[in-house]
């Protein structure tokens, strides 16, 4: 599995497609990146599955409340 890759995502705030660099060398991670258009923070959760050699990326606006 490649440890470094790029992924296109849609900003959950404005819908603009941006390119996010991913570094899977440290395993699963949770991080934030700012949209280059609207400057709002994007919450990203990356889950690395070494067994199946896949990376799952979950994107949300982080203003969604879970109860």
TrEMBL record:
- Enumerate the InterPro entries for this protein: UCP037225 (IPR017143), zinc_ribbon_bacterial (IPR025990)
Its recorded name reads: CPXCG motif-containing cysteine-rich protein
